Every structure is written in structure tokens, then in C-alpha cells.
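Many introductory courses stop at the sequence. We go one step further.
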Amino acid sequence: MRRGKMMREHGRRRLMLRLPDIRQVLAEEPTEALNEMFESYALAADALDRFRQQMPKPEALIAEYSQLCRDIEQEVMIYCSGQVVR
């Protein structure tokens, strides 16, 4: 359970760096939906970092996880703007 909480916080911090326009919203007490997005983002971004360090570079995985990170960032922005997600 503690690992999940750490991953959520890690994801929140990474998103705060990537999305400075909504940093204040991300710093507030998160909803369960945001916590799930934070954790998903942390897992995807960490995997992407690992793929980028591998040799030879797994280009297909890098592209897939780059898109996944962008999708999660977009979902967080939509959620935080008060629009319905999905």
C-alpha cells in the first residue's frame, strides 16, 4: 500500500513539472480519480525513461509510451478543467 502512495506522489510531482499551468490544482488534495492518474503517469513515465536508456533503443516502445504519457497529461488537464473525462 505504501508503494502505491509513493508512486502517486511521484506521478503528481512529474505532472506538476510537465503541466505548470495547472500546478496549483495538482498541489491540492487529490480526488481518487486524480490519484489513479498520478500513479498511471508515474508508471508510464518511469518505463519510458528506462526504454530511452536501453541499447539498442526499443523505438516502438518509446513511441508507444511517449504517446501514453501525452494521453495521461491530456486527461489530467481535461479533468482539472472540470470537463468530463472519457
